[in-house]
Amino acid sequence: MPILTSPFAAHDLIRQPEMANQPLQAFDAADQYLLEHLHAQGLAPVSRVLLLNDSFGALACALTGHCQLTSSGDSFLGHLALSKNLLRNGLAADSLRFVPASQPVSGPFDWVVLRIPKTLALLEEQLIRLHGQLAPGARVVAGAMLKHLPRAAGELLERYVGPVQASLAVKKARLLFATPQPRPQPHSPYPTYYSLEQPAIRLANHANVFCREGLDIGTRALLPHLPARTGALRVADLGCGNGVLGIVFALHNPEAQLTLVDESYMAVQSAEENWQAVHGARPVSIRAGDGLAEQPAASLDLVLCNPPFHQQQVVGDFLAWRMFQQARAALVAGGELWVVGNRHLAYHIKLKRLFSEVHQLAATAKFVILRAIR
Questions:
Q1: Would the pTM of this model clear 0.85, i.e. be above it?
Q2: CA–CA gap between residue 33 and residue 55 (Å, rounded)
Q3: Tell me: the pLDDT tens digits for 11-33?
Q4: d(CA 143, CA 148)
Q5: Is residue 147 situated within a structural domain?
Q6: Does a structural domain hold residue 157?
Q7: Of 124, 145, 178, at which residue does a domain stop?
Q8: 189: preceding bond cis by omega (within 30 degrees)
Q9: What are the E-state strand segments in the chain?
């Protein structure tokens, strides 16, 4: 297992979800560059430091005990990795405060140390929320690998914080230093909204929700083919995003018991608001989680899923495979998993390894709708 070695300490770190023969590590050269910069600046134990988007807790583990830490991010899996990595390295779980990205942070902070996220809307919302949270003389530094550092990230730092200077590149990583200057109170453009025609509902989407500006084409392909089953079914919308699949299914089945789960705190926040707008006080379980990992075995009759094909900047079907395995464990005998996926991902082959029957129900030029029976 790769060890993160920094001027602060050496730490053994893991990613989440854990995979056999994990080819990826839980940190990169941008994390190391940030830690070297902080150490060179003489970070004081009394310094109040806000970490943003610390993917798997690498920065937090290194800085624990060296300052007063608050960490904020939008990934449940990232939060889980942070908790496991603290324990793995003998660090106290209460040595820092974690704030989901769906909630505002509370300063003042002397340092803001951030990793540039894949979704620049998330970065914009986080920078907007820094207004009024910086101590006098506060310093803001962002880090990213060059291949994941768009020009727009520096422009957002300039707009919401102050003038930006870029470091030299080291090991294909770069830092951006923003000097805070007075700015008028910014207005957040988030959440954004879009409406469906059939059914006629309006959906809120917080900053880090996938396809925030309109219904994604995979979900659009699946919606007309949702199972027309009624009765007191126990149904999960796995990887729910803004909750549209579960919400629409519930419209057609008033007796169904719905569970909506996503690993994004902002997705869960969006799904909660959308469920309330459409269904009012109708009972539902909406939670941030590692898919159906916490779902009791044989406790669901139906799972609806439009699985992700990436984790941050890493593209692959490992998350989808994990979700299929979780769905199989959570379904009763004869229970069904309904999936939409890109044709080229060949999900039907993977599903046949887990389920007794797999049927293609519909297809477009790009997507297939599959029904897998437990």
A1: yes
A2: 15
A3: 999 999 887 766 789 999 999 99
A4: 10
A5: yes
A6: yes
A7: 178
A8: no
A9: 3-5, 10-12, 48-52, 68-73, 96-100, 109-115, 134-145, 164-166, 173-178, 192-195, 202-205, 234-238, 257-262, 285-288, 300-305, 310-311, 314-315, 331-342, 357-363, 367-373
